[in-house]
Automatic annotation (TrEMBL):
PANTHER family: TRANS-ACONITATE 2-METHYLTRANSFERASE, TRANS-ACONITATE 2-METHYLTRANSFERASE-RELATED. Residues 45-137 form the Methyltransferase domain. It comes from the Bacteria. It comes from Anaerostipes rhamnosivorans. Its EC number is 2.1.1.-. GO terms for biological process: methylation. One of its GO terms (molecular function) is methyltransferase activity. Keywords: Methyltransferase, Transferase. This is Methyltransferase. Pfam families: Methyltransf_25 (PF13649).
Amino acid sequence: MDEFTSYQSFARVYDEFMDQTPYEQWGRNIRKFLTKYQVKDGAKILDLGCGTGKMTKVLKGYGYRMTGLDNSQEMLEIAADSGEDGIFYICQDMREISLLHPADAAVSTCDSLNYILEPEDLVQVFHRVRENLSEDGVFLFDMNTLYKYETLLAENTFAEDREDCSFIWQNFYDPEDRINEYDLTLFIRSDLGLYQKFEEVHFQRAYEKEEIVSALHSAGFSVREVVDADNLEEPDPESGRLYFISTIDHEVDK
């Protein structure tokens, strides 16, 4: 399986189906943490797994100089077509991040890092982030929890019908390898008024909090906070999504 071939047909309707996503609130949360860890206004921010650029644009509104990185050319084309000036988009694998100039901070939202299916690849992503951050760089990202995959998504099916597009989203979670398979069936209305059927399969991996923290340490980060992404409080057993906030650990360079 290849976690990096998704978001092709779905890219065309992604923003419509994500219109209930609280990007503005997430942006305020991210800004709060960036400010707390001395990331100044005007800082260079890398948005990993930026998709159609919704969060990238929210953060640009705070005055950050944004670079959006994603492996889906289709998603990036939509991001670039928005006409938003001053955002640089890169089509690149997160495992191979290479920036011309270091970023002051890197962020990732919408469980983009759960698409990294192998633990060694997750460490590789973290290494590449560290190598592309400035000396005092901050790394903030969210990830879905094991509880979300086991209980909230599990074997459930979700469906939604819109005027111009509809989808059926089936989940199949394997507790042994902790891989969640999303089978997406899309019906998208064409300019001629006919509906076309598209199918995509997505895969995400559930990681324990301790695994993620260990991977960050292995890549040379010091984990400063892990909080529930919904209330910014200490995680509990039913937290569905966590924020991880880390800074570069310069002790490993000595």
